[in-house]
Amino acid sequence: MELRHLQYVVAAAERGSFRRAAMALDIRESAVSRRIRDLEDELGAALFIRHHGGVRLTHAGQRFFYGALRALNEIERAAADAGSFGRGETGTVRIGIFTSLAWGFLSDLLRTYVSANPGVRPDLIEGGPAAHIAAVQRLHLDIAFLTGKLVVDGCDVAHLWNERVLVVMPSKHEFVSLRKIDWTHLRDRHFIVSEDDPGPEIHDYLVKHLGDLGHHPSIERHRVGRDNLMHLVAMGQGLTLVHEAAGAAQFPGVVYRPVDGEVLPFCAIWSPHNDNPALRRLLSLARTMSKKVV
């Protein structure tokens, strides 16, 4: 039994004629009649009663017709689903993030992508660079957006955008009157960071830049998330750093000032072995949007 046999039976039953079925299928009437006869011989049951005006279904034919119609509809739906998935129009894309979605390139990218691909569900996972890189390598994540100019074994990387580095300080701090801060302003200041991501990366960033001035920075770790860290800054417990997108989130009692000349590069990382079509659509959009900002 072949798929076309089902199509011939359905067409003949709906039109009440082998001739009209053949015309609808753009084949010869003899081909329809012969293939249906072969099918009846294979099944051991007559599907149609032939008469001068055309054909009509037998009781066995009615049962076969409804089953064939359901099968053809299921096949059509399966083909449409596979085509949509293959074109990246449906499915899920798993995205590792290390930055705020309050504002900036990544926020704009995801909003644009979701709007253009309503059949794709973005699955966002927060985490640190090491965990995200390992997940991408194992194909547990489709893509991750991370800071720095990365070189990762077995992965492709693309630099997409940059963000300024901001100092977070109490609203009554002496540096509030300054429009820009440089590292010499910060060399003797006390900093606080979270023990969780991105705290370790901020710690290393401070050590590197203040160490270049020949100064070992004072940095205190706290077991709090970003929101509570901002409240500690407001209480005068120390300064901290954030990237520009995170600075879009407003907290009472703190202000942001850019560090003069300091920018963070942000990259996308993905596996070349990942065949998720939804990922390819996201990458294409990201590259297009990146050309406007980098």
TrEMBL record:
Domain HTH lysR-type: 1-58
Any Pfam family the entry gives: HTH_1
GO cellular component terms listed in the entry, alphabetical order: protein-DNA complex
PROSITE patterns linked: HTH_LYSR
Annotated GO MF terms: DNA binding; DNA-binding transcription factor activity
InterPro entries in the cross-refs: LysR_HTH_N (IPR000847), LysR_subst-bd (IPR005119), WH-like_DNA-bd_sf (IPR036388), WH_DNA-bd_sf (IPR036390)
Domain of life: Bacteria
The entry's keywords: DNA-binding, Transcription, Transcription regulation
Family designation: Belongs to the LysR transcriptional regulatory family.
Protein name per UniProt: LysR family transcriptional regulator
Lineage: Bacteria, Pseudomonadati, Pseudomonadota, Alphaproteobacteria, Sphingomonadales
